[in-house]
Write a structure and sequence with these properties.
alpha+beta; 1 helix; about 25% strand; about 80 residues
Length: about 80
């Protein structure tokens, strides 16, 4: 997160949150489980994600977003 550089990084990483759900399943954590993940405070971009791991092992990540851009990729 450079203050004056060109690198733009998302302070709330949903993919990391989902992987935490996978880790909880792999380590035998009790289910269902709901967590609030706090990220971005240190860089002034507060983010709160919600992680829900259901009884069957489904992983769901949710939260609010601020859309910074939109596009289409054609392969």
């Amino acid at each position: 997160f450079p203050k004056h550089g060109a690198i733009i990084e998302d302070p709330g990483t949903g993919s990391a949150c989902a992987n935490l759900g996978g880790w909880l399943i792999a380590t035998g954590a009790s289910r269902p489980r709901m967590l609030t993940i706090a990220q971005g405070d240190a860089v002034g971009r507060r983010c709160r994600l919600r992680l829900n791991v259901d009884a069957e092992g489904g992983i769901f990540v949710s939260g609010r977003v601020v859309e910074l851009g939109r596009g289409t990729i054609t392969l």
